[in-house]
């Protein structure tokens, strides 16, 4: 359950958009810089193959830039619904046949709807703990994609949470040093090689963690469920979240 770190996602899109925005705001007004940054983000989505998860992240990133450029408030839940509607309108088949589309939106739904509940109910005792926040976000995304993964791939990973906790904190630094390796290599080759060695060490750590955990006995078990059971699980999950949110509003 760590293959998601190899996929282009919202984090990568955010980095690309941020870099474009920081550079362009030095030469243009904010609104103009946002438009050019949006164009750069679209180009990045096309160059990476425009898979469903990348398109989803790219469209949501464009909405962030549009809100920033126009001085309006960005609401991620509304943005997610709008982007899903646009993608389904463009190609209704993704709703049924594109596993990447389904997993991408399920993971984001978990982060947007389930994580706030976990944070309010169980993680509020650790408000300054980065580990608690990482566990909460990882659980939120994985809980939402788990029934779908079991239905399609008939596998349940018992060490996914541990693997993600050990790997995720290192990913931003790996990406940073990889980017610096390419950038510094254009200026002076030895600097690029030095940064590349650091990126390699961080990547090697992640690979070794995955290999070791995957080699443990019963790291994953084979499980199969009927699609009716999967639908019932999601219905129960949404119902539980709605009930918890309703009670939370009454308490306030």
Description:
There is one protein chain. The protein is mostly helical and 252 residues long. Helix content is 77%, strand content 2%. The protein has helices spanning 10-24, 30-47, 52-70, 76-90, 94-97, 99-121, 130-153, 160-167, 171-187, 189-215, 227-251, and strands at residues 155-157, 220-222. Strands 1-2 form a two-stranded antiparallel ribbon. The longest helix has 27 residues, at 189-215. The mean pLDDT is 82.
Task: Describe the structure concisely for a colleague.
Helices cover about 75% and strands about 0% of the residues. The protein is mainly α.
Low-confidence stretches: none
Strand residues, percent: under 5%
Q: Name the quaternary structure.
A: single chain
Tally of helical runs: 11
Give the CA-CA distance, first to last residue. Answer: 38 Å
Largest sheet: 2 strands, antiparallel
Helix vs. strand class: mainly alpha
Give the mean pLDDT.
82
- Largest sheet: spatial strand order: 1-2
- Considering DSSP H and I runs of 4 or more, what fraction of the residues is helical? over 70%
Overall number of strands: 2
What is the radius of gyration computed over CA atoms, rounded to a whole number of angstroms?
Answer: 20 Å
Helix-strand topology string: HHHHHHHEHHHEH
Based on CA inertia axes, which overall geometry fits?
Answer: globular
